Backbone:
């Protein structure tokens, strides 16, 4: 399998709240996605490299590197994943900055799982079949 090929419905959930990662991953697995969960920036960076997700659900406020710093690092990849920033922070404070840094979408917590799935579908990468 080529590493730059379209990723088969792989989503990485990065959040330092274990309950959030558990609920979201369970929901997405039930919808046919392959899901990995990372609880901090170290795990997130390793999972991005090894799991190669097509979409990352990325919390902004975490210990270690922030979600914004991880977002910047993802943008340096040759085939960067789509990134949906997810946080309980005030959207008027962080959403514009996240979008300016290259996020594909933003969602506030608590998330509606059906709306989250629509958002993931909306940002899912399309790859030409060449």
Residues:
């Amino acid at each position: 399998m080529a590493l730059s090929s379209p990723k088969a419905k792989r989503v990485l959930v990065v959040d330092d709240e274990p309950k959030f990662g558990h609920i979201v991953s369970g929901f997405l697995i039930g919808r046919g996605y392959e899901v990995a969960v990372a609880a901090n920036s170290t795990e997130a960076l390793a999972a991005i490299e090894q799991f190669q997700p097509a979409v990352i659900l990325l919390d902004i406020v975490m210990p270690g590197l922030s979600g914004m710093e991880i977002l910047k690092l993802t943008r340096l990849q040759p085939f960067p994943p789509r990134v949906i920033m997810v946080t309980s922070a005030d959207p008027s404070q962080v959403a514009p900055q996240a979008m300016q840094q290259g996020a594909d979408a933003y969602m506030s917590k608590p998330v509606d799982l059906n709306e989250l799935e629509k958002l993931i579908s909306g940002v899912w990468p399309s790859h030409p079949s060449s």
About this structure: The CA atoms of residues 13 and 64 lie 16 Å apart.
